[in-house]
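Reopening this ticket.

The earlier resolution said the output was attached, but the attachment link was broken on my side. Pasting everything inline this time so it's all in one place.
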Amino acid sequence: MTKIKKVVVIGGTGLIGSKAVKLLHDAGHEAVVASSRNGINAYTGEGLAEALAGADAVIDVSNMMSFDRDVITDFFATSSRNLMGAERAPGVRHHVVLSIVNADQLAANPYMAGKLAQEEAVATSGQAFTIVRATQFHEFTETLVDAYSADGAVTVPDIDFQPIAADDVAAALVEAALSEPKNGTVDLAGPERAPFRSFVSTYLDAKGDNRPVNADAAVDYFGAPVMAGSLVPGGDSIKGRITIAEWLRV
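Inline output:
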C-alpha cells in the first residue's frame, strides 16, 4: 500500500493548483490548499510554518501577473526563499516548482525573468527539488488570440508550438512530488508539435471565428524575440496526453 503523504500546494486555489489538490485527494493523500485566501502567504511568510508541519513535499504553482520586471522578480524570488527557509525545520523532502520551457532564452520578457529568479532561488537553496518547465497551456489560447489580434486578423510569431492541457500539467506535478527529487529541471509539453499559427487556427475554427491567422517572423512573444524552437523543448521531455482537439471538445 502506498504511504499516505502530505503535500502542500502553494497557489492551491488557482487553475493548476486546484487540479493538483483534487488529484492528491483522489489518490488518498493529504493536500493542503495554501493560498493567501486562507492565511498562507509565501511572499510574506504568513502561515508557512503551520502549513508545512509534517509535510513530505511542496508543489509551488503560485503566480502573479505583472509586466514590471522588478515587481515580478521580487515576488517569485522572495516567495521561493521564504518557502525554502520554512521547509528546512520540518524536514520537507521535496520542493516541486512549475516554470516555463526555455525561460532562460526568453528573459527579455519580464515574467520569464521572474521565473528565472524563482528557479535560481530554488536551485541554490540546498533543498531537494524538481523544476518542471512546461510549455504554454491550452487554457491560455484565448489570451494569446486577444494579444495578437489587430485589424480583423490574428498575426502570431512564426515559431513552433507544443501546448499542454492544465490537467496534464497538474498530473505531472503531482507525480513529480510523489517521486524522488531530480535536483534539476525537466521539460513538460503537449502531445503535438506544430506551427503556432496552426494551433490558433484550430482554436478559432472551433469557436466559429473566421478571422485569418498569419505567421510573421518579426513578431515577438510578449517582448521577447523568438526563433522557431523558442517555446518548445529542445531535447527530451515528458509528454501530456490531451490534444487540442480533445481539449476543445470538453
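Reporter confirms the inline version is readable. The radius of gyration is 18 Å. The first strand starts at residue 6 and ends at 10.
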